[in-house]
Amino acid sequence: MKEVTAEIMSVGAGFSTNADSSIRINGSDWNHNMDQLSREEEKRREVFGTEEQAALKNTIQETIRDSMREMMQESMQEEKRWEQE
What we know:
Order of helices and strands: HHHH
Strand content: under 5%
Number of helices: 4
Number of strands: 0
Distance between the termini: 29 Å
Structural class: mainly alpha
Oligomer: single chain
Helix content: over 70%
């Protein structure tokens, strides 16, 4: 999870591209992933409607936020340990 969060942050900050991150994470092709995700989202909307889609998106965003918060806390704790040495 940390690797994925790091890739998300790297892309968001402009240090990497989605295509490069896809390769590093699981060796996949980003364009193919987007095409497939588009088809899956369309099917999901047909089956579940848009409310379920919004709930899923919120869950994903919360998970990413929690992971980033955890990484930041770990980083801060590590910095404190270094300062104490």
